[in-house]
Amino acid sequence: MGSMVDDLNYAIELTGVKKSFGAGSNVLNGVDLKIPQGKITAIIGFSGAGKSVTLKHILGLLKPDEGTVKVFGQDLGALSEKGLNDLRKRFGMLFQSAALFDDLTSIENVAFPIREFRRKLPKGEILNLAREKLTVVGLSSMDYEKYPSELSGGMRKRVGLARALALEPEILLYDEPTTGLDPIISEMVDKLIVDTHKHREGITSVIISHDLPSAFKIADQIAMLDGGRVRLFGTARDFFESQDQFISKFVKKAREQE
Amino acid sequence: MEEAIPRKKSNFLFQSISHLGELIIGGIGDLGEMSSFIWTSLGWLARPPSRVKEILDQIEFVGNKSVFIICLSSLFTGMVFALQTYSAFHMVNSDTLIGPTVALALTRELGPVLTGIIVAGRAGAAMSAQLGTMRVTEQIDALEVMGVNPKQYLVMPRIVACVVAMPLLAAVFDFVGNVGSYILSTRLLNIDAATYLAKIDFFTRPKDILQGLIKAAIFGFIFSSIGTHKGFTTTNGARGVGIATNETVVLSSILILVSDYFLSAIIKIILY
Lengths: 258, 272
Description:
Chain A is an alpha/beta fold. Chain A has 10 helices and 10 strands. Chain B has one domain (68-271). Chain B has helices spanning 4-43, 52-62, 67-91, 98-136, 139-146, 150-188, 193-203, 206-232, 237-271.
């Protein structure tokens, strides 16, 4: 019973996760990570540290060679395809490129998941819900009928976030949300992430990033991946006070970027 | 030094055989992977949610939007075929056989094969490019993360649409091609219209048309399977999309021509 309660306190648990692609290339080398519910957790690391592979394991898009991945206490390895799909409905994800469907307008993109999973809702109501989500992320009604190719990078991220929020997810994943954006838009996206988190009680936000200053600024907890393992998992303060030379170098770089 | 030459030769032979073996094993592996891809995609046809709207959208794209290009190609194919047949048949005083010759060639072979190659170049390439772009821009990943099966949403409707639309397009090709041949024969080559039509009626049977339509459906299945598979498994960004599209057109055209021979042989045994 005790372990049950313990499971429920964590939205995501990775235990001893190992993954390699081909012989001798271990991308994940025993990742142990427990992501608490209701917090903003950032997973940071240099390129090739295994951030994206970790994210794909959390989503069940990749299966670990060894170890387990649990989401809300459910072992992803033990779930059927249907079970996995049902679980994924509790996720919302903002992709690095926003990954908007380019043959759909902004509002149609946001309406897409609602239309898919709440099939009995009348069309008008679906569009009202989509409009509501677009308003939450600060998009003006003039942009609702625009196609992704007509939107700026920052606007695409907003629409991507609105789409991620469409089904009121319990876990929000952000893959490199500020990569490729200028500092002003990056700050806007950071603020959007914090606001979105604040206004949704109990939501768990996970940010995969190599934007260190922004991770230190907005995350409650930070996990640093290095060589396919978690090098340090703690608050920004833990990072600043760490005696580990590698971490200190990392933090120094982050301060320089600020 | 004297021994080195035969060793070199045997090394070359060994490498060639080994390379050929790798190619064959790779080819079998690819075929197996593609078969599994198609099988699992079509398996989603019977599972909810229904994808009728997506299938109809694709039929509109593959069918309706190909009608003009099919009409234009078939009109001139019929006309040029009649013209060339006339040159030969006129020498043996058999001008009236132009009608059935063109009709049989179009319904049995040219209709389905040319429709297959034209639609593979238009819709098959478009499918590959669209799915390839969706893959490299993470749109397919986005579907998967949402819990929407991309094979059910993107692949299955395209394959079903091609199997449905291709016989219809081949029928259009047959009809317009014959109209082209009729106009040329009766207006320019001065063949009697009634005789022309009577000969077609005498020599052409419904099963000649049927075999063309069956072939067209199979060609639709072939190029849509290749196009969706190549697009779905695209890697390496824009370059990968280009390669996938190119491979779709080349492989589809070759497979349509090769399979046409075997289909003709099989259909001959079954229908005739």
